[in-house]
Amino acid sequence: MFRHIVSAAFLVASCALPTLAQGRGGQPPQTPAPAAGDSTPRVETAGPAEEKISQTSHTVRLDGRDIKYTATAGTLPIRLDNGQVAARMFFVAYTKDGEDVKTRPVSFLYNGGPGAATIWLHMGSFAPKHVQMADEGFQPAPPYRLVDNENSLLDVTDMVFVDAIDTGYSRVVSGVNNAQFHGARGDLRAFGEFINTYLKTYSRFPSPKYLIGESYGTIRSAGLAQELQNRHGIELNGITLVSSLLTYQTLSPAPQNDVAYASHLETYTATAWYHKKLPADLAGDLKKAVDASREFAFGEYLTALAKGNRATAAERKGVAQKLARLTGLSVDFVERANLRIDPGRFRKELLRDKRLVVGRLDSRFTAIEKDAAGENDEFDLSNSALQGPYTALFQDYVKNDLKWESDLHYPSSGDVRPWSWDEFSNRYMDMTEPLRSAMSHNPFLKIFVAIGYYDMATVMGGAEYNFAHLGYDKTFTDRVSFGYYEAGHMIYIRPSAHKALKNDIAKFIQGTRGQGATKTTSQP
Description:
Order of helices and strands: HEEEEHEEEEHEHEHHHHHHEEHHEHHEH
Oligomer: single chain
């Protein structure tokens, strides 16, 4: 059976880790209180209506040519070891008509959280249709529009968008304890079962296979590569990590974790550059500014932080001045913060003189909050700006375009707390070793890491640090390539970045779909 391991140590660890959920301002979902005298959690379960499959025919125009495709919406059963159906996971698959499935790539896409439905990737990234945002990806005015997606990946790969259990329309069946899926191990097991079942049901085992995960979905992808190998004998051609991290260490500043402060610095610099808070010699070229920040962050800055109280007053002063120069903050603020700038405090401080706070998921966004003197965000506009249009249009699209209906409600951020980190965490969730192991077993597996300069949820310095500690050998590092985009966490909402991201992933898939393919490389 699925095993759900919950210990006091793991629960403490999960409380210490930041959530990456999209759709609720980054806050953990809340569980409705049970009625008086009722100690059993209320769980919405999948019923007979969720067992159906709907197939519809469509056409999309990409690069001047019409592509006919089939959309398949429905659920697949997730079985326990004894064969019992424990849950049904909702998916929408887009398959190009007239292709040989033995050679046609298939990609599995999902968001993260943990607890985020895949509505964000589905309605924003590479499906044949997407939500039309305002200029540069900012919040549109209602009513909202769903339009053809000129940056769909359908020309190079079939796509399967799938919701984690207790998000979207994915649910356990009646009588099954859903807690077993609320953890790193149970989540990997469920996704592994889903992918294996999909490949079997639709005869896709011979196809080149890819994972495209975003946010916590990148942690899932790292573990899922090993899960698919060990439990199902399934090998992947490639993994795309959109807004990536492999360990929470780089996101969790603490008295004994100075790495996280250094990891955030490049993103602070990019954000300050965007909001015109850098000195003149760094204001002209974003890449130049970030390069300078990277060199300082993992050189002089991290060394000074490691010294702690052993650093001299002169050393502290010199570092404070350079840190202020690269962040747009005052030397006085940096010194009072002990050279350690918490990301939440940075978002409040950078534009405090204008009574503005910058976004967490996308630091291009700014909002006016009720308190311009505090240190905590009231909300994240870069998150809430997508909530309304994505949620409304997705539910209408599934019902009226894909012809699939359910009485279930569609939580874009599901109730999966408490989340068990199982054996993957002591203090910090870490999937570096499972990914290394998967790459070691499969020497053809390649990784593409997509990074948004303005992403303060999964910061670029953290991703770079993660992959600098993967395997310690060229056999691993030579199979990892990076793409950098002037966008935030959801890279695809900004049109220019969306086009570049689509082109980079398309090249990555085309270069890895068979033996002898060329390697994709790009530089920051």
